[in-house]
Design goal:
mainly alpha, about 170 residues
């Protein structure tokens, strides 16, 4: 009986997964065709990069993001996307460089500041992470994620009272 119930649950989930995978492949084919029809379509290159990113094909994602930047280098969120791909590939120096490029264009981007903070924490640059994340929390004081990241940075620096305060703000 338990095996039958498990199969009744597993089969629809597997079909849903296959449908999703086919949808992603169809989306990628569509976006590739869009870039062929209009080689200056920055949005299509960025979305194609995002599709590859979501499939954990980070090198392909970076290639597509860079195509978008070749057309228009003033796209801060594309730099953020490249940074995120590098971060996933554990290439933290490159990620930090890309996040900083995005921040040159939009210095008050909470999202990019948070991502930069994550990469800095990952490479144990806690003091620098604190500077970045304090700026992010000024932009969005209710962001639980930013307070959590600040708490992690403080904890790593053994500043326990500050860490507790940030973790409490997260809640």
């Amino acid at each position: 009986m338990a095996k039958r119930v498990l199969l009744l649950i597993a089969i629809p989930i597997f079909i849903l997964f296959l449908t999703y995978e086919q949808g992603v492949a169809d989306n990628i084919d569509y976006l590739i065709n869009e870039t062929k029809k209009n080689p200056s379509n920055v949005i299509a290159y960025n979305k194609l990069g995002m599709a590859y990113f979501n499939m954990a094909k980070y090198n392909k994602a970076i290639i597509e993001y860079k195509k978008a930047l070749k057309i228009d280098s003033n796209l801060p969120l594309v730099y953020n996307n490249i940074g995120s791909a590098f971060h996933k590939m554990r290439m933290f120096g490159e990620a930090i460089t890309e996040y900083r490029k995005g921040l040159e264009l939009i210095p008050d981007s909470h999202q990019i500041l948070n991502n930069l903070g994550i990469s800095l924490i990952t490479i144990k640059e806690y003091e620098e992470a604190l500077k970045v994340l304090k700026k992010a929390v000024l932009i969005n004081p209710t962001s639980g994620k930013t307070h959590n990241l600040l708490g992690i940075a403080y904890l790593s620096l053994k500043r326990y009272d500050d860490a507790i305060n940030e973790f409490n703000e997260e809640i």
